[in-house]
Amino acid sequence: MAHTDDEGDDRLAAEGEVAVARLAIDSGDLGHAADHLADAILADPQLPELHEALAELCAAAGGPAAARELFPLDGEVYLGTVVCRAHVEAAAGDWDTAVSLLASAIQYEPARPWAHAAWLAREDLPVLVDPDAVAQAAARAAGALPDPLPTELADAVRPFERFLRAVVAHHPEHPLLLAMASGLTRRFGATTRAVELAERAHRLASGYLPSVMLGNALRADGRPEEALAVWEAELARVAPDDGNSSSYLAVDVAELYGTLGRPAEGLPWLERVLATEPGHPKAGPAVHGLRHALDGDAAHLLALADHHRDHPDHEYAQDLLERLSHREPWLGMVSGATEATVNVLHQVLGSAGTGRDTEIDCTASAVEPPSSVLAVQLALPRSTVSYRSVGEPDPRLPLTEPTTRIWAWDGTDPRPAVAAPAPSSADLVRATAEIVWPTVPAAYDHAVRLAGLPLDELLGVLVHPPTPREDDLGRALLAHQPELWVRAVQAFACLGIAHHRTDQPWEGSERRRVLRDLLLGPEDWVVEAAGFALVAIGWTHPDARADVAGLLRQRLHYSAEASRSRVVTILRSYCALVLAAPWAEQPDRELARRLLDEADARDEADARDAEEVEEAREVEAAGEGEEPGPTEPEPPQRQYQQRSEEPGPSRPGLFRRLFGRS
């Protein structure tokens, strides 16, 4: 394996620590030497000179047994001390303690090659250790490992797995050892072998732990129904008040039903747990997860956020919220755009030869959100966008008379009505904005770094967005979907506004006034960004929810009415925002859901029409003796002129390729 620059730096650091340790040994300062060796082993656990110096330290102390006190394990213990003590115990012949300490190091930092120790590979070691001690060590090491193990972790832990396999070969009838070995084996992807080990343990001593491990192995091996049978049989065997162990197994049963697409069958198991343990740290969050699986309502996700705020030690609520929010529009990522201008931009960016100097003159039939122009000019600065008409009701007009204006119009041509932010402010927003986030509260908290920016600066960013960051994702966005970056900048700038002067009570605050003005302003992506900030305030400040619901309602009903006479390109995304505010009144949520269903039906009809057109083209080509196939692309040109009559959905396929959606 080639060394990276960081690995080279680590080796140099370790060599320096070893050199100082040897000087300390020579001067008789053994405690000082031990400290430096503990630091060295953190930097490079496999450095040969380090292990030579550790042997020298043991000799200077009067032997490995005497050297133990140089690496004490009482009080505040450091990882390097634990690993050095493991090697000293091995040198002293206390193999059980050595293996246990090595497992503790793996548990704490599994990516480091702690297990690549020469003594762990001794052929006679499996017969020198106590199988009970090894089983406990295996449980400690495996408990912190992901399932399955990624390659880097698997390489680091593999020598420990080999050692465990050899111990199992010498103690093939030890139930606890077999069960714990099954857990580690499963994480290495050997699920069939894991099932064999767990089945043998279960036959030898059927009980709680072998049942749990067998169910885990069966589930990993693609046999979930068999896992359910094992777990339910064990739960039927134990007393209902058998304590936390059985309650956690009941949660696993419930969630496995959810994984199988049968969440309704899992809920009674959780309700049974909560009836006896109302404060159970996993069952409470799991109920919300299964209820979400039943109806998809964001109310259950909000309940998870509220649960975690009330019980910050219940980390499972946070983990579950992140999992269920992942890549969901507004809940875990910025929503996409559907403007005709954006569709044209995608077509041009997907053409061979397109570069930053490519020009397009894009003419749309009707005025669209002016932020779509920002996306075009971000990717292709020399391009222009124009509109031929204005729909009714006029999308350029605010819903109410605002005190905050960020757009002005020269006829059908939009222009920023506020100055660009200072470079330092733009850079801070650039460093903060994200197109994905773990949860709504996490996005809100992340934006707190913008709290110190003046309102004028945050408003300026909305219409003068900085370019994406100079990383792989930033370059991909600029080259393929710049509108997502613009929308991310606007979303986080509005979250920054949500943090402005939080010393002011919400009602009557500047942050409420500005976000309300933006939400009810001209039809634009900034409307959605302000709506997202208001939704985030509702998620994190329950006392503001009723007011936020009222503000969201005004825009929703206006957009629904406007969509009867013209295209409202932000309607789908805005409806998703309303549904992300489950405290909104039921009629408003039902309206948002109906509008989304109607948009989905239109998309399906458009897709069928496009498919029929393509089939007709292929039939026509076949009738003329041509081989049907893709049309020949036009030669790339430096200047494009594109007229688009009606907005349509943007290309989701590219989004999936960039960000891993299926």
Summarize the structure.
This protein is mostly helical. The protein is 62% helix and 4% strand.
**Would you report the number of β strands?**
5
Quote the average pLDDT: 91
* Span of the ends, CA to CA: 34 Å
Going across the major beta sheet, what is the strand order? Answer: 2-1-5
Number of helices: 31
Shape: globular
Helix content: 55-70%
- Unreliable spans are 627-662
| Class per helix and strand makeup | mainly alpha
Largest sheet: 3 strands, parallel
Q: How big a fraction of the residues is strand?
A: under 5%
Radius of gyration: 31 Å
What report would you give on this structure?
- With 662 residues, this protein is mainly α.
- Helices cover 62% and strands 4% of the residues.
- The chain has 31 helices and five strands.
- The strands form two sheets. A three-stranded parallel sheet has the order 2-1-5, with helices on one face.
- Strand 1, helix 20 and strand 2 form a beta-alpha-beta unit.
- Helix 17 runs antiparallel to helix 18.
- The chain is globular and about 90 Å long.
- The two termini are 34 Å apart.
- The C terminus is likely disordered.
Topology:
Layout: H1 5-27, H2 30-43, H3 48-61, H4 64-67, H5 79-92, H6 95-108, H7 125-128, H8 131-143, H9 151-170, H10 175-187, H11 191-204, H12 208-220, H13 224-237, H14 244-259, H15 263-276, H16 283-295, H17 299-310, H18 315-325, H19 340-349, E1 359-364, H20 371-379, E2 384-387, E3 407-410, E4 413-416, H21 423-432, H22 440-446, H23 455-463, H24 472-480, H25 482-498, H26 510-519, H27 525-540, H28 545-562, H29 571-579, H30 586-623, E5 639-644, H31 652-659
Parallel strand pairs: 1-2, 1-5
Antiparallel strand pairs: 3-4
